[in-house]
Amino acid sequence: MEGLEWLTQVKEWSGLTSVGIVESERHIALNLLKQESSAKVGIRNKRLKAASDDDYLLKVLISN
Questions:
Q1: Cβ neighbours for 11, distance < 8 A, ≥ 6 positions apart
Q2: Average pLDDT, whole number, for the chain?
Q3: What local confidence, expressed as pLDDT, does residue 45 receive?
Q4: Torsions phi, psi for 39 (to 5 deg)
């Protein structure tokens, strides 16, 4: 248990919280979806399309 408490303290001191990491990844994903312009639909539909279509997901990840 002491090891886990130490690890938690290190994460708090360094700012490496899992919530922060997830929020950063979410922000990046939303920005990529906003930049993708081939599908003339909203962000929600782009997200759903990327989840179900691997080719579209690759297009979103590669396009800049």
A1: 17
A2: 77
A3: 93
A4: -95, 120
pLDDT category, 52, cuts 50, 70, 90? Answer: very high
Long-range contacts of 35-41 (CB under 8 A, 24+ apart): 35/63, 35/64, 36/60, 36/63
Q: Nearest CA to 37 among 17, 1, 63, 8?
A: 63
Distance from C-alpha of 31 to C-alpha of 49, rounded to nearest angstrom = 16
Sequence-distant (6+) residues with CB within 8 A of 59 are 36, 38
Torsion sign across C-alpha atoms 32, 34, 37, 41: positive
Q: The tokens of 45 are what?
A: 């539909």
